[in-house]
Write a structure and sequence with these properties.
Layout: H1 2-27, E1 37-43, E2 54-57, E3 60-70, E4 78-84, E5 95-100, E6 107-112, E7 127-132, H2 136-168, H3 171-204, H4 206-229, H5 232-257, H6 261-268, H7 270-292
Parallel strand pairs: 1-7, 2-6, 5-7
Antiparallel strand pairs: 1-4, 2-3, 3-4, 5-6
Length: 314
Amino acid sequence: MKYSKEIKVGFLAIVGVMMSVFSYNYLKGINLFEKNRKFTIKYEKVDGLSVSNPVTLNGFKIGKVQKINFNSKNTRELLVDIIIENDVLFPKTSSAELYETGLIGGKAIAIIPDYKNDSTIANNGDILRGIIKPGLTELVNQILPQVQLQIEAVMKNAEIVLGNINNLFDEETKQELKSSVQDVSNLTKSLSETSEEISSLISNNSENFSYAISNFKDASNNIKSISDSISSNDLKNITSNLNDLVINLNSITTSLKNSEGTAGQLINDNSIYVNLENATKELNILIEDIKLNPERYINISVFGKRNKAFKKNN
């Protein structure tokens, strides 16, 4: 009876130890009842990475970080032990990328499979190549110096431009600009007043405009009615008469040009014009002589006595 009690105490002790080991490993993230695989990753630095941080594959969580420690053979390296809790398989040459999980912070490890170069499956205890994906803070720290240099160059150029502008806009130029602005303001004011006057003119003469438009419309309708009243035969007759008139005028012009008839000879023969001009001159001389010496041409005797004959003086 005493022997059986000791067995019970021993059995309870063994169970307590096993429970303690299971609880300890469970708190460390190790489930003894699951088939887990352990891998080691080498990093130069692990900023923000801590135990129990997730391990993912294609964005899906497949494990967690178990332990982080320095490499005893090379203190410049850090060894990160991860536990894969999934049966997923990936090549031995796959890399483990350390990346930021968000803007607030926090790190995670992403397994990037290398299916092209090697088909050897990674087994428990293998060492994976670690790479670090630059985070937002690191990118900002890399870009900030370049941005700062560019900003400094821009500020220098801006200072030079402002200096040139100050040299360009002297007091005389400022006064001219001020005068130009004033002229533009006056022009705008004049345009506004002109627009108001035009609006007022249109408003005051709206009835006259309406009457004029109505008259124009009536005149247009009258013209349309006249054009509609003229038939195509009338237009044809008018056109035929105009053509005959043009032909007759051309014939008359040709006859005059060719000295046919009296009118053509009068137009084209200069001798007729000269003879008429000489006759006119002699007629004018005769009329003037009659006015000055009427007795030469008119012989009147009151008492029946005749005057002596006019003796022409040479």
